[in-house]
Specification:
The chain is built from six helices and 13 strands. The chain is α+β, with helices and mostly antiparallel strands and 244 residues long. The protein has one domain. An eight-stranded antiparallel beta sheet has the order 3-4-5-6-13-12-9-8, with helices on both faces. The protein has a three-stranded mixed beta sheet with strand order 1-2-7.
Length: 244
C-alpha cells in the first residue's frame, strides 16, 4: 500500500493526527458514518477521515479494550508488565481484534459530563501557556465502558487531549516493544508511551511524533496525548500532577 501524503490535506499537528488515527481498526457507528458523509469534502481523499474527536476516542478505547477480546488473548505472543496500576501488554505485532461498536459522542459541559458518567474524573488545574479549551467535554459509551475527553488548542491549532475512564485491572493497554518508560507522577509510577499502532503493517510506529502520558488517580485511568512534540514531557507531567 502506498503511503498517503497527509500534508496535502492537513497541516501541522492535524497531519500527524490524521496519520495516527487512520491506522485504527475500529468501525464507527452507522449514525456517525452518516454524519461524516454529510461534511463538505475538499477532495475525494478527505472521505477517508472521520472527525478528529471521534477517532481520538476510538484510539484510546482501542488500546485499552483490545486485550479483553478472547480472540486477541488467544493469539498474543506477549509480555505482561504492570507499572504502578497501569497494565501493559507488550507485543511486536498487533493481532486482529474484534470489532468495537462506538456510540454517538455527546458534547456537554464539564459539570454535565461529571454527572453523566459513573466515575469521578478530575480535570487538570494546569495547562501549558497558550492552550485553551472550549469548555465542552466529549462523552462516549462503547460497549459497557464510559470515556470522557477534553481537548485544548493553541494559537496554531496544535492539539493536547486528555481522556479518562474507570480503572479496570482486567484491561491492559497494547503497546509495541521499547515504546514505554516509567516516570513518577506525584510520587506514583506512571507510563510514557511513544508512538502508536500502524494498522496496515500491524506494527508500532511514530515514536518521534506521538507522546502519551498514562497514569491512574483514585480509580480513574488517564491518557494525556500530544503530537509532534508540541508539548514537552515536563509540561505533560505538570498537567498530570495537577489532577488530584
Amino acid at each position: 500500500m502506498s503511503e498517503i501524503n497527509f500534508q496535502d490535506e492537513f497541516q501541522g499537528a492535524d497531519a500527524g493526527l490524521a496519520r495516527q488515527l487512520l491506522n485504527l481498526r475500529q468501525t464507527p457507528s452507522a449514525a456517525l458514518q452518516r454524519r461524516v458523509q454529510a461534511i463538505p469534502q475538499r477532495s475525494a481523499c478527505r472521505e477517508r477521515f472521520v472527525p478528529r474527536l471521534a477517532w481520538a476516542a476510538v484510539a484510546l478505547i482501542f488500546v485499552a479494550l483490545a486485550s479483553t477480546s478472547p480472540a486477541v488473548r488467544a493469539t498474543l505472543g506477549k509480555v505482561e508488565e504492570v507499572i504502578g496500576r497501569i497494565h501493559l501488554t507488550i507485543i511486536d505485532h498487533l493481532p486482529e481484534a474484534e470489532e468495537v461498536t462506538i456510540t454517538e459522542t455527546q458534547s456537554m459541559s464539564l459539570k454535565e459530563a461529571q454527572a453523566a458518567v459513573s466515575f469521578d474524573f478530575v480535570m487538570p488545574t494546569y495547562v501549558p501557556t497558550g492552550f485553551t479549551t472550549s469548555g465542552q467535554v466529549e462523552v462516549w459509551t462503547p460497549r459497557d465502558k464510559e470515556l470522557v475527553m477534553i481537548e485544548w488548542r493553541d494559537a496554531e491549532n496544535n492539539l493536547l487531549s486528555l481522556s479518562a475512564w474507570r480503572h479496570d485491572e482486567d484491561v491492559s493497554t497494547l503497546v509495541g516493544p521499547d515504546s514505554t518508560k516509567t516516570i513518577l507522577i506525584n510520587g506514583q509510577e506512571a507510563v510514557v508511551m511513544r508512538g502508536g499502532w500502524h494498522s496496515p503493517t500491524g506494527k508500532w510506529s511514530r515514536q518521534d511524533r506521538i507522546t502519551t502520558l498514562v497514569w491512574e488517580v483514585n480509580g480513574v485511568h488517564y491518557h494525556l496525548m500530544t503530537l509532534n512534540n508540541i508539548v514537552s514531557l515536563e509540561e505533560l507531567v505538570a498537567v498530570a500532577e495537577s489532577v488530584h
